[in-house]
Amino acid sequence: MANNRIKKDYEAFLDGYKPALLIKNDAKIFSRLVEKYPSVLAYKRKDFDMYLFFQTEKCKKKYLHQNRRYEEDTYEDHYLLGVTLGFPKKSVEFFSELYGGRLSLEEQQEKERYKVGIRWAGFCFSTHLDLIEQEIDWLWNQYLHPKSENQPLYVWDYEENYLEVPYRNLNKLREVCEYIRKKRGLIPTYTNK
Question: In what order do the strands lie in the sheet with 39-44?
């Protein structure tokens, strides 16, 4: 892991640029959030509950209106949660397709070969190797904020430590993606639908 401290999702939320935050009810930050921000119980688990916090009451109402009681772990459920949390749309679609129960085991395994993790300025999500450049460019432009600027990007290939990319350095991002592709024996495959 790089020497720089990776910014946490709740820090980005408290800084005001992350639109929503999903956390366990036993998280240390939970009690500070309960009183100040609108929230909903997003998932009820055996050992804990997951709450979704919003920057505004308007955002909470929009989420509840769109939710329409989607079944857990479906494409629709993952998609709504991903866009609500502020992740790039194509990455949300990729994740939702991957884990939304629509793919056969073989299709899922093949797509997972192209999956990488992204961490930047309090955002943490999975995406397809071939989408990284456009999705990161969108992320950097969408969340222009004094407390997000100059935060390094970390790409996690799920096999090693995070690979660090300096803020807005697309050349280094391309190098990291090429390194992962070569290591996995992959060629670009993603096609926009």
Answer: 20-24, 49-54, 39-44
State the amino acid at position 39 in one-letter form.
S
Alpha carbons 48 and 31: distance in angstroms, whole number = 15
Q: How many CB atoms lie within 10 A of CB 146?
A: 8
Q: CA–CA separation, 80 vs 96, rounded Å? A: 9
Residue pair 7/121 in contact (Cβ under 8 Å)? The answer is: yes
Residues 6+ apart with CB under 8 A from 43: 49, 50, 72
Write the pLDDT tens digit of every residue in 134-170.
999 999 999 999 999 999 999 998 776 789 999 999 9
Per-residue pLDDT reduced to its tens digit, 21-64: 999 888 777 777 777 899 998 888 788 889 999 999 999 999 99
Amino acid occupying residue 190:
Y
pLDDT digits (tens, 9 = 90+) for 86-120: 999 999 999 999 999 899 999 999 999 999 999 99
